[in-house]
TrEMBL record:
Keyword Secreted: yes
EC numbers on record: 3.1.1.-
Similarity comment: family membership: Belongs to the carbohydrate esterase 1 (CE1) family.
PANTHER family: FERULOYL ESTERASE B (PTHR43037:SF3), UNNAMED PRODUCT-RELATED (PTHR43037)
Chief location of this protein within or outside the cell: secreted
EC top class, as a word: hydrolase
Lineage: Eukaryota, Fungi, Dikarya, Ascomycota, Pezizomycotina
This protein's name: Carboxylic ester hydrolase
Keywords tagged on the record: Carbohydrate metabolism, Glycoprotein, Hydrolase, Polysaccharide degradation, Secreted, Serine esterase, Signal
Cleaved signal peptide residues: 1-20
Length: 297
């Protein structure tokens, strides 16, 4: 029994590791911050696949994040594509702060990431209603920014240990050493309507709805402090016009508290007791939240 389990685990590992990420060079458009892109396209790609854009933390890379947030086995089973881009500037942090980043088609990382997405949509016939973003730390901050600046592109986001879109406005950089620490230290406290205005001002012509958001934070996070969870929840609850409904203890596991807004389909938070930076990726919840697998988070 144990032997069989070990064997199938090893076989699965060999199968997964045989499937390397594939570099992509020609997605088009200016690339001033020199982002890079690697993708995982399963052998069993669906004819009209979903796409997950998975964003690494500061100091990371697409390769690194494909281990931290490894959706490749599920991609193989379910036919979706995963894109693992890499930031190379400012200690490999995403630009979550510059005026060009916090603006639809402003030209910085969100625009470049959207250019990657649009290239993959065309090349692999991606289902435009099933494009998702996820990330950890700086990658979670960028998930917030992407959902704010390209709400018409992304259907949903999932986010580990980041900050609200716009929290880093005015910061001179994006890494722990180059940024203004006020936001990460949890000292920026705005109302939902104030956050919603900041987000709407990033894409003034946009009148549609905003992507669904699920976001996690640890109570013992002393790099990106826990008040940032509440700021994100205020931001997305105002954008979705859904209020706090209830908390559920020990969901999805002991020590985690699920924070439900509205009917739980548009906005969900998770506070992980005594978990530091960052909350581990919960890929089974991500896939459920995205609607790639069945069931409710
Ligand atoms: C690289 O990061 C620094 C902040 O640390 C920023 O001033 C500079 O504009 C960035 N360069 C590009 C090309 O994005
Ligand atoms: C944020 O401000 C509100 C209103 O002034 C206050 O009730 C709340 O306690 C503050 N939250 C934090 C984390 O400082």
């Amino acid at each position: 029994m144990v032997r069989n389990a070990l064997f199938s685990c090893a076989a699965a590992f060999l199968l997964a590791s045989a499937q390397a990420l594939e570099p992509v060079y020609n997605w088009g458009g200016p690339n001033p911050s020199n982002l890079q892109l690697e993708i995982y396209v399963p052998r069993n790609k669906a004819p009209n696949p979903a796409l997950i854009l998975a964003l690494h933390p500061c100091g990371g890379s697409g390769q690194q994040y494909s281990h931290q947030a490894d959706y490749t086995m599920e991609a193989e089973q379910l036919g979706f594509i995963v894109a693992y881009p890499t930031a190379t500037n400012d200690s490999n942090c995403w630009d979550n702060s510059s005026p060009r980043a916090l603006k639809h088609d402003g030209g910085s990382d969100p625009t470049i990431l959207n250019n990657m997405v649009q290239y993959l949509v065309g090349k692999y016939n991606v289902d435009k209603t099933r494009i998702f973003a996820t990330g950890s730390s700086s990658g979670c901050m960028m998930t917030n920014v992407l959902l704010a600046t390209y709400p018409d592109v992304f259907a949903a986001g999932s986010c580990y240990s980041g900050v609200a879109a716009g929290c880093l406005i005015g910061s001179p950089g994006n890494s722990p050493t180059t940024s203004d620490r006020t936001c990460a230290n949890g000292k920026i406290n705005k109302t939902g309507p104030e956050w919603a205005k900041i987000v709407r001002d990033m894409y003034p012509g946009y009148t549609g709805s905003y992507p669904r958001m699920m976001t996690f934070h640890g109570t013992a996070d002393n790099l990106v402090f826990p008040p940032n969870l509440d700021e994100q929840l205020k931001e997305w609850s105002a954008l979705h016009n859904v209020g706090f409904t209830m908390t559920a203890q020990n969901q999805p596991q002991p020590g985690y508290t699920k924070i439900v807004y509205g009917d739980g389909t548009k906005l969900m938070g998770f506070m992980a007791q005594n978990v530091g930076h960052t909350v581990p990726v919960h890929k089974e919840l991500d896939l459920m939240w995205f609607g790639i697998t069945q069931g409710r988070v």
